Fold this sequence. Notes:
Strand content: 15-25%
Largest sheet: 7 strands, parallel
Strand order of the largest sheet: 3-2-1-4-5-6-7
Radius of gyration: 18 Å
Shape: globular
Structural class: alpha/beta
Amino acid sequence: MKDAFGAPQSLLVLGGTSEIGLATARRLIACRTRTVWLAGRPSPALESAAAELRGRGAYVRTVDFDALDTESHEVTLGKIFTEGDIDMVLLAFGIPGDQERDEEEPLSAVRVAQTNYTGAVSAGLVCAGALQAQGHGSLVVLSSVAGERARRADFIYGSSKAGLDAFAQGLGDALHGTGVHVMVVRPGPVQSAGTAAEAPLATIPFTRTPLVTTPDAVAAAIVTGLRRRSETVWVPGALRAVMSALRHVPRPLFRRLPV
């Protein structure tokens, strides 16, 4: 359960090496989160992330998780919930793909779609069911501003995020009143050491400044959104107005914009 400060005491990060996921874990540990599960493919990076969070005072466990192996999700994730209640699940995995390559190699495009959408739908439903069974908890889904409107530069990635965003909003409506809170997070282009996670957005000229963000800024917005019980969080907040305007630009004009 959440403590007296409103912070989750236990956290499951799906995408255990995600920079945004780890930045969020650090902030929550500072707010008294004590148990963290990092779910991801086995790797030195995953073990290093776990060791770093242990150094901050948390009890951290890793679990083998592959977004593409949807048949394993119910068993793999179910076992985590049998260990005890999970107060917050952060769905932070995803791949940007390579638009030029993916257009030439359909199987590469399919991998983007299956990871970002199909894998997220599977894992999201499993975790939502477990949260509902325990009667409380938050599911935080990392979407992207790229899903707001398809762009020539990244429509494969953007379409996968658009599907994820719609799924998460619908899931939130389905779970309303059950004690489970679903929050969709829509970051803009993210600058970080592993900035490839948001590479498709880094080419948008008018969002380089001041609308570019960082993993720590997204993490701060997530923590604030949890405290406020927000359903949708834009990072930075000004993107809400920008994308509201872009959604209504006629397609012939939109094609000519430097986006």
